[in-house]
Write a structure and sequence with these properties.
By secondary structure, this protein is α/β, with parallel strands linked by helices. The chain is 39% helix and 18% strand. It is built from 24 helices and 26 strands.
């Protein structure tokens, strides 16, 4: 360390001699918004504290100068910095074109400013479109650029902008070892890269404001306690504006349901930001008693607010970077920060497409306290950066040099191994069979096991555990990493607790059964449980016709009749987990008796059991078999025999099938009039035999406004197993919910 210090002093002395002892390094710091100022301010204070070596010019542009975003240039003035130039560069608009026009406007205005200032070096931060304009202008005007926070990986267009600035910059200050390696991989000169840590950490780790309660009360109210409020900060994702606005709407719905005091900050200036503000106002956030909506919070106060919050939620880089210094729980929504290094305190909700996911994440994270993380800094970034600035030799050639790795001709590689495939264990508990499968992330059934479903609870649970253990062991051999266990079962299920409340008559001794605990304890894996009809709907949503469809219904036509309803991309369970019992829609007041005890249910007409019952009646009256059919003496009459007889011209069998199809069609019409889905998916072994009859009934019986609904047969070979797998694959691990 002593050697390094002496070497550094000697180098600085040599640089001063080269640059001229009387020459001060003229540094231009350009700040565009509240976020980058929080990183640049510590450096600016450091430069200002050494007037014998540096001359500081401050240029303010972007959202700093917009009233809608709090006129945050005032906090720069409050920090006692002289603002040399104010540039209004934001073009008002709500789409991507406005961002492009803003960059163009900045490019028009900046050359005059830089000609007047003539800085030796310009400091540019981050990955905003304003920063790209700054770097482009400086590079074309032969001004050296120092880029802060290059080499990081996040998501959306920010990555492209950040890496573009890296290519324009002459010097780089990065925050993590991974970022440093990325810069080297991008062919940047290692001698011009400084691993300093994040400048904001210098302030974070020294923040010991004992009067934090006054700050909390000022922003959230007098009755708020520490660890009992939420800070929300969410920005539009410019590569998918529509989805990010929908995600913001779901976030606000979840926060309203969670019923905790919440501080909501306005989003950044980006395409889609105005629409997000409209969503806030539409939901009455600014006047809701539990919410405080603000355009800006000074950084030193913001530090105290997140340090003592019960949770932070959103997609701001602050959540995955700065908040880790305090161990505050963070919920990172969507893909905007994908690739960022994070501490243990961050829970990622990659596909934040339902209110329930976000609400469950809040329940998991709120009020926890994690170990403090120093991934992004140790509090000594600014001294390192100042030393780095002093070492810059202005007499060195300005032209950048790239350090390209050697490239060999005719490179051929052998694949020694394939990375493990992320997979799920799927369990399907049917009335007859018990099946377990290894299902990959793409919906491929890698391995499947099947046994007869035992009649008693003890034997059934023992067999499930045995088959799951066997499948988990086999997963290693087929190079699959099991993320969890998903279970599809008949009956009414509480998916939150993983309990089968009560089952159909087809599965005996299967009421008030906790499936999650024993299986999770035995396999040391997370376990999800749901009704088989709901699982079929989830399978369609992830792998089948329902992918990307906002409102659809799945009907299973098998031994019984079941189904699942997806409304606004969410699976509906109902207040007592009894939603989508579609087989028990009554279509006739005096119809045949159903296994549920009622009469005239769809299941009493159209299920496999109902068709088997009618087939037996015909067989007992010698009216089933026709020419071309034969049965062995010991063969059990089934629904398949009835279908075969109808195909071979048996009028009575055909009449029974038409009646069953009509009953199913009437049930679908009732669903259309109640839920108004855009798609109905018929699943199961009988689906193809019913689809034409269902369409005919819709054309005859449905209101004209719903007749245009699409009715299709599922193309999934195993919806129950795929649905059970999707329970796991949609939520994967603890870190990705």
């Amino acid at each position: 360390e002593v050697y390094f210090k002496n070497l550094s002093k000697q180098k600085q002395k040599e640089v001063m001699e080269k640059n001229g002892n009387n020459h001060k390094l003229r540094v231009c710091v350009a700040t565009c918004n509240r976020a980058d100022y929080s990183k640049l301010a510590p450096i600016m204070f450091g430069i200002k504290a050494e007037p014998h070596f540096f001359e500081l010019d401050v240029v303010v542009l972007g959202s700093h100068l917009i009233d809608d975003y709090g006129n945050t240039y005032r906090m720069i003035e409050q920090d006692d910095f002289d603002i040399h130039t104010r540039l209004h560069t934001i073009v008002r608009g709500e789409d991507e074109a406005a961002m492009v026009e803003s960059v163009g406007l900045a490019l028009v205005k900046l050359p005059d400013v830089l000609n007047r200032l003539k800085p030796d070096i310009m400091i540019v931060h981050g990955d905003r479109f304003d920063a790209l304009a700054l770097a482009t202008s400086a590079a074309l005007m032969n001004i050296r650029i120092l880029h802060i926070e290059g080499g990081e990986v996040s998501g959306t267009i920010d990555d492209s902008i950040r890496h573009a600035i890296t290519k324009l910059a002459h010097y780089h200050v990065c925050c993590t070892r991974s970022a440093e390696q990325h810069l080297i991989a991008m062919c940047e000169d290692h001698d011009r890269i400084l691993l300093a840590g994040c400048p904001s950490y210098d302030k974070l780790l020294s923040a010991k404001n004992k009067d934090y309660m006054s700050i909390i009360r000022m922003w959230l109210g007098e009755d708020v306690k520490t660890r009992d409020y939420i800070v929300a900060l969410q920005h539009p994702v410019t590569t998918d504006i529509k989805h990010s606005i929908k995600m913001f709407e779901l976030t606000l719905d979840a926060l309203i349901s969670f019923n905790k005091r919440t501080l909501v900050l306005f989003p950044n200036v980006d395409a889609g930001d105005k629409e997000m503000v409209r969503v806030m106002r539409k939901k009455g956030i600014e006047h809701h008693p539990n919410f405080r909506a603000v355009k800006h919070v000074p950084f030193d106060q913001f530090i105290q607010l997140v340090a003592h919050a019960g949770c932070m939620i959103g997609n701001s880089s602050c959540g995955v970077r700065e908040v880790g210094a305090f161990g505050t729980p963070v919920i990172n929504l969507g893909t905007r920060q994908t690739g960022r290094e994070t501490g243990e305190n961050v829970l990622h909700v990659r596909d934040a497409d339902t209110q329930d996911k976000i609400l469950h994440a809040l329940q998991l994270q709120f009020g926890k306290q994690y170990p403090c993380s120093k991934i992004y800094g140790d509090g000594n970034a600014v001294p390192r950066i100042l030393k780095f600035l002093k070492s810059i030799d202005l007499k060195e050639p300005l032209q950048k040099k790239f350090c390209f790795p050697p490239v060999k001709d005719n490179i051929s590689q052998d694949i020694d191994h394939i990375l493990e495939t992320q997979s799920a264990l799927a369990v399907d508990l049917g009335g007859t069979n018990l099946r377990v499968a290894i299902v990959s992330m793409k919906g491929e059934i890698v391995k499947k096991y099947s046994e007869l479903n035992p009649k008693t609870y003890e034997d059934r649970l023992e067999l499930i555990l045995k088959m799951c253990v066997e499948a988990a062991s086999e997963a290693v051999n087929v190079n699959c990493r099991i993320l969890g266990v998903g279970i599809s079962t008949g009956g009414r299920v509480n998916p939150r607790e993983g309990i089968v409340l009560h089952s159909t008559k087809l599965i005996q001794e299967w009421s008030s059964v906790d499936l999650r605990t024993p299986i999770s304890d035995a396999l040391h894996l997370p376990v999800w449980v749901d009704n088989d009809g709901n699982c079929a709907a989830l399978a369609e949503r992830k792998f089948g016709h329902g992918k990307g469809i906002e409102n659809f219904v799945t009907l299973i036509t098998g031994t019984g009749i079941g189904g699942g309803i997806v409304h606004q991309h969410e699976l509906i369970h109902g207040s007592s987990f009894c939603a989508a019992e579609l087989g028990h829609i009554v279509v006739s007041l005096d119809g045949p008796e159903c296994l549920c005890g009622s009469q005239g249910c769809i299941e009493a007409y159209a299920s496999g059991i109902a068709l088997q019952r009618e087939a037996k009646k015909l067989h007992d009256e010698d009216l089933l078999l026709v020419e071309g059919m034969s049965m062995k003496e010991e063969e059990v009459v089934s629904a398949a025999h009835l279908i075969q007889a109808a195909k071979l011209g048996n009028a009575k069998a055909d009449s029974i099938l038409r009646t069953a199809g009509t009953a199913l069609g009437l049930g679908v019409v009732n669903i259309l009039h109640t839920m108004n889905p855009s798609l109905v998916i018929l699943s199961g072994v009988l689906a193809s035999h019913y689809i034409n009859a269902v369409k005919d009934v819709i054309n005859r019986q449905a209101l004209s406004s719903v007749k245009t609904v699409d009715v299709v047969v599922s193309n999934l070979a195993d919806p129950a197993l795929l649905g059970a797998a999707s329970l796991v694959l949609d939520y994967t691990t603890r870190r990705i919910y």
